[in-house]
Amino acid sequence: MKRWTLCGKWLIIALLTVGSLWASGQEAMADSPAKVVSAAGGYDYGIAAWSDGSVTGWGYNKYGQVGDGTRIDQYVPKKISGLENVIQVTAARDASFAVTAEGEVWAWGAGYSDSVNGDPVLPYQKIELPSKLEGLSDVTSIGSNGIAGIAVHKNGTATLWYIFYDSDYKKHIKYVPLKGVTGARAVQIMGNTALILGQDDTLRSLSLYNDYYGRYRSEEELKAPEILKADISRIAISWRDAFLLRKDGTVLRWNADSQKFTVVDGLKGISNIQTVGYNRLYALKQDGTVWQWNYNYGGNAKPFQVKGLSGITAIWGTTGLTGLAINKKGEFLAWSDGYRTGLAEGSGSAHNDSDTMVTHVQQALSWTVNGKSVNFYATSGVVGNKLYVPYTSVFGAMGVKISHEVVKATDPKAVPQSQSIWTFTYGERSVSINQDKPNSEIFYMSNSTVFPLETICEGLGINLKWNKATGEVVIQS
């Protein structure tokens, strides 16, 4: 049995098309009625908001950051229930956030989603779904470092929020209006400093933290923001570095320690910038190409073009090691280089642009069996363009019975000494799969054994239709 596993926080397989774990992006996105409008990622996971207002999540899920109400890693994006009319998503570390068209802010993941005890199906892996931050309203955009967040309101003011615990260890969320902030358009948190981009394209900084008391400042302690730079259209943050996109298409780097502005050589005609992890800057050029700068790899590192990306219309960063993008065709893409991450798998040296792997992000799957919608907690998979599901998924609704037996070898010298055989039965038909044989088509994903659904349906004479453009799977027994 083949295993797809986690090694620490490195998700070995997700969004991989070479091999391939995911359906061909060309085929999957051809007729998609919805397009990605916003995307983000934390450590080894991703979330995306779509033009129909829905949100999907995938990847590493220990803290419920995917948003499906479990701690189960999801190898195929899942639609997040309870979220509607979402226009922006943000992620940092292991926490996720969404802004709706109505100006609401929703949060889930580390610090925001608590365990749900006593669930009969998932007694140890059930976790809360996204919840609304009641202290925020009329919000147009947010920024977060995973610990605290700042919301920009429709009137140009801003509010800081963060989690704290009282003397009885009860969790609360504190909301602090940022005094003196007006005309704000976007905001990012850089360490303990807020960087505020104004509607007048002026960048200002505001100290958020009281080092003496070891806490965030109260409203009375906040000072007026200081002007850092003018003529700025976008900002991107990575740890102690801020990157500023000028209106003329050039990029500046500002370091919080040196307090100096330097021009990033080799980047001109830029329309968007994003950071990934602690050492990568991604820049989208006006011609639709994407450029990467590994700025912490020594003084000689220079921006280079990311191969395999063209006709790109928007890019998004993550706090992992993967970039996200959408192209003119509406295809949702992920790419990485040199490292395994929760969003894509690369190989080779991170310094070599030829090792970049560009993958297509699979649509979230929906399941209808005999005319009824079916949902299940465990992850599904797409391997070699085929659907894989755990036995606790659609088989019960299909009327398929599953049996499992271990058959010992009669030959004492045989290797292995026993074989594990799964049998799927529907009426008079049966399909048996020996998981100990090479190419048995049985995989182990995220603590679940998953089986080749299409192969089983074909053998049992059950009709299965999978619309790869929309993710809809319809099964008729």
Automatic annotation (TrEMBL):
<dbReference type="Pfam" id="PF00415">
    <property type="entry name" value="RCC1"/>
</dbReference>
<dbReference type="InterPro" id="IPR051210">
    <property type="entry name" value="Ub_ligase/GEF_domain"/>
</dbReference>
<keyword id="KW-0677">Repeat</keyword>
<protein>
    <submittedName>
        <fullName>Chromosome condensation regulator RCC1</fullName>
    </submittedName>
</protein>
<dbReference type="InterPro" id="IPR012854">
    <property type="entry name" value="Cu_amine_oxidase-like_N"/>
</dbReference>
<dbReference type="Pfam" id="PF07833">
    <property type="entry name" value="Cu_amine_oxidN1"/>
</dbReference>
<feature type="domain" description="Copper amine oxidase-like N-terminal">
    <location>
        <begin position="368"/>
        <end position="475"/>
    </location>
</feature>
<keyword id="KW-0732">Signal</keyword>
<dbReference type="InterPro" id="IPR000408">
    <property type="entry name" value="Reg_chr_condens"/>
</dbReference>
<feature type="signal peptide">
    <location>
        <begin position="1"/>
        <end position="23"/>
    </location>
</feature>
<dbReference type="InterPro" id="IPR009091">
    <property type="entry name" value="RCC1/BLIP-II"/>
</dbReference>
